[in-house]
From TrEMBL:
Pfam families: Lactamase_B (PF00753). It comes from the Bacteria. Residues 27-111 form the Metallo-beta-lactamase domain. Coiled coil: none annotated. This is ComEC/Rec2 family competence protein.
Length: 353
């Protein structure tokens, strides 16, 4: 049995996956931590803090913590969790995180950036992606359970009878982040100008010309994304990954338009940005359930164009949201125009038996 809890991480990602096998053994995987407020805000516990306290009360652990990349809306809650002196860090058993220093050790043959995690005082804004990445590096070094290797396309990890196949990032995405890390501040979420396309109908978006422009954010290109297989279930957790990197990884695994990967659930990349989901990727996928994570208050996301592509590929799709934004994105006419469904999860977990 798989239970997936899509925590409310504001404009960010925070996902808790619990796996229970036939012996009732439970393993937990935490993916990202949303913004800082996902852990706590004005001394009030957020979804992330409530979740980790609940695990501790049940004597459970976080068997794998995946920090997909350095953007604030993925890393902020994790940093706040580690800054909490009352948080029992021993609950975490293994961490995946591609830090700047780790990337430098793997891709910097000239040693140009070997001290990059020390020489960052030039950044006055404590919320820059790079500075947060450095702070997290410091916490993880003290934690003692950091799986200190580059997590990239092709890696396969097993947690009991759960198989995780990493689909992103590729070497190119990591090298670009490596080059940008200290030379300039990464522009984390510049892939959307903040304007929405909600005034357009789903029918218009499906029928009108669709010109795809891929995400150019360097941090997003370094995002960890993976396929999770447990018993007979398959989940695709895409972080903020580039669609063409995922497409290439799926093709390398033997999937094609004629042999699609059958999924039980797909977490849409980059809060359903139209620059992170294309038809070429969707054509490789047979899936009915798609989840979007964002409160829609920043960056103009989600893009309705993304949902039009999903519906075009599978007219009977179920679109799920971790915030109550269905009626903001879709008109009543949209919701009555086809066989697709769009629903608010209302903090409920998704259970796959």
């Amino acid at each position: 049995m798989i239970s997936v809890k899509f925590l409310q991480g504001y404009n960010g990602d925070c996902v808790l996956i619990s796996l229970k096998d036939s012996t009732n053994s439970i393993k937990n995987i935490l993916i990202d931590g949303g913004t800082g407020s996902t852990y706590s805000k004005r001394r009030k516990a957020g979804d992330l803090k409530k979740a980790v306290l609940s695990l501790a009360d049940k004597n459970q652990t976080i068997d794998l913590l995946v920090i997909t990349h350095i953007d604030d809306d993925h890393i902020g809650g994790i940093l706040k969790m580690f800054e909490d002196k009352k948080f029992d860090r021993s609950i975490i058993k293994k961490v995946w995180f591609n830090s700047g220093k780790l990337i430098a050790e793997n891709f910097d043959s000239e040693g140009e950036f070997k001290d990059r995690d020390i020489e960052l005082s030039i950044y006055k804004d404590s919320n820059t992606s790079v500075r947060q990445g450095v702070r997290l590096d410091e916490f993880l070094n003290k934690l003692g359970c950091w799986d200190y290797r580059i997590i990239k396309k092709g890696i396969i990890e097993k947690i009991d009878n759960c198989k995780i196949t990493v689909l992103s990032p590729d070497d190119n995405g990591l090298k670009k982040l490596h080059a940008k890390w200290e030379r300039e501040r990464p522009e984390s979420l510049d892939t959307s100008a903040g304007k929405t396309d909600y005034h357009l109908s789903i029918k218009e978006l499906i029928e009108n010309e669709d010109v795809f422009e891929e995400d150019g954010s360097v941090p997003n290109g370094s995002s960890i994304a993976f396929l999770l297989e447990f018993e007979d279930k398959k989940l695709l957790l895409l972080g903020d990954a580039y669609p063409n990197v995922i497409k290439e990884s799926l093709i390398n695994l033997g999937y094609s338009i004629d042999k699609k990967i059958e999924l039980d659930l797909l977490k849409i990349s980059h809060h359903a940005s139209k620059k992170n989901t294309n038809l070429e990727l969707l054509e490789l996928i047979d899936c009915d359930t798609y989840v979007t994570l964002t409160n829609s208050l920043k960056h103009g996301l989600p893009d309705k164009r993304t949902f039009a592509r999903i519906i075009k590929n599978n007219p009977e799709s179920t679109l799920l949201f971790n915030y109550d934004i269905v009626n903001k994105v879709f008109s009543e006419e949209d919701l009555n125009s086809g066989k697709f469904e769009a629903n608010y999860l209302n903090r409920e977990s998704i259970t796959l038996d």
